[in-house]
Hints:
The protein is mainly beta and about 120 residues long. The protein is built from no helices and nine strands. The model has no long low-confidence stretch (mean pLDDT about 90).
Amino acid sequence: xxxxxxxxxxxxxxxxxxxxxxxxxxxxxxxxxxxxxxxxxxxxxxxxxxxxxxxxxxxxxxxxxxxxxxxxxxxxxxxxxxxxxxxxxxxxxxxxxxxxxxxxxxxxxxxxxxxxxxxxxxxxx
Length: 125
């Protein structure tokens, strides 16, 4: 039996200093079965870096995950239950989105989900 690879996000040692702006996102949604943009694309020559993530759901079918605007999974899915599961990750090395891509949250089905994400946007050098 082999592991099905869902994604291979880019991990970097650190966030570039040039043009660095920190941000955080906190939200809740009852139906993210269609992807929801939670952080807009930063513009040409810039990238988002994710440093901390909290995903949660109290719906057995939701299974939320973070992705970029091209549907590349960056983190998750959370295998949610009606008991209110959550997943917390403080990343030693940030996840880097491809240059000028938006960050989205998506779920496998409708149902309550919540997300908290911390990170930064910086110039590509």
